[in-house]
Amino acid sequence: MIGVFDSGVGGLSVLRALHQCQSAPPLLYTADSGHAPYGDRNPAHVIERSLKVTQHLINQGADLIVIACNTATAWAIDTLREQHPGLDLVGVEPGVKPGVAMSRNRRVGVMATPSTLASERFASLLARHANDCKITGVGCRGLAAAIEQGEAAHEQVDQLLDLYCAQLRQAEVDTAVLGCTHYPFVAERIARRLGPEVQLLDTADAVARQALHLWAVRHPEPFARPSSSHEKGQVRLQSTGDATVLARLAREQLGLLAPVETIAL
Ligand code: DGL
User: Fold this and answer.
1) Which residues of the chain have pLDDT under 70?
2) Is 69 considered catalytic here?
3) How far apart (Å, rounded) are the C-alpha atoms in residues 44 and 265?
4) Cα pseudo-dihedral 52, 53, 57, 60, rounded to 10
5) Which of these is catalytic: 69, 133, 140, 165?
6) How many domains does one find in the chain?
7) Which of 151, 182, 201 finishes a domain?
8) Ligand 1 centroid vs 34 CA: distance in angstroms?
């Protein structure tokens, strides 16, 4: 089984990419909504929670784990690798490299949590891949937390997007990297603010491909996927907090009707 986690609903954008693939094995998604957001908190919190959730997924039978969270990848993946040397781990990082490759005017924006932007891993991404591009990082404080609240925070999301997209427009970027897995769920609203000449980039598909490749290497026997679309839902969803938005997005974005299990971790 592949275990997938995020601070909340954002990782569903990665789960969706995994779930769309016919060869995907059973998937278990844990949203740590009871301890979200990660991106506005200190790194110690992110590391502690990532260790807890990873151990939980292992206990549930996951033998490959996708950290579907840029913030957790930035701060916790090294510790997770140290603590679980035999475990296959796939992380998510802002798509600086493909963004730089796509940009025509050599100006790329990165929308991410303040915590991701402050990390050494992000600095190293820039050092390796920014090349001749001017990169404008916009720390979108509060945005993931507002998306986490769903419709209840619709206006707040609009206000935050006005603020953050204005910074990208001012920087005249032609490419905007969505460096937080929550942001694809408001991609249309971002696109509307940035205009048609700005291309948006998220890495969910690439991460899903990488995870499934790694899975196939470790499990050469193809997983016999049930054929009926009803059974296709070999997906379990769990949340450590309020599961309302998770259940709604899972239904709307993945077609999953299964109830969300509430767990304490
Ligand atoms: N979805 C997470 C990410 O990709 C972070 C959201 C949060 O701040 O909790 O960075």
Assistant:
1) 222-233
2) yes
3) 17
4) 70
5) 69
6) 2
7) 201
8) 13
Q: Catalytic annotation on 140?
A: no
Pairing of strands 134-139, 88-90: unpaired
Residues 113, 167, single domain; the answer is yes
For residue 134, list its beta bridge partners: 107
- Which residue range is the domain that position 241 belongs to? 2-92+204-262
Q: Are 240 and 52 in contact (CB under 8 A)?
A: no
Does the model's pTM come out above 0.90?
A: yes
Query: Tell me, what CATH number does 142's domain have?
Result: 3.40.50.1860
What 3-state DSSP class applies to 214? helix
Indicate the residue among 148, 178, 201 that finishes a domain: 201
Q: Which residue type occupies 100?
A: V
- In the reported structure, the alpha carbon of residue 236 is separated from the centroid of ligand 1 by a whole-number distance in angstroms of 21
With 0-12 CB in 10 A as exposed, 13-18 as middle and 19+ as buried, what is 207?
A: buried
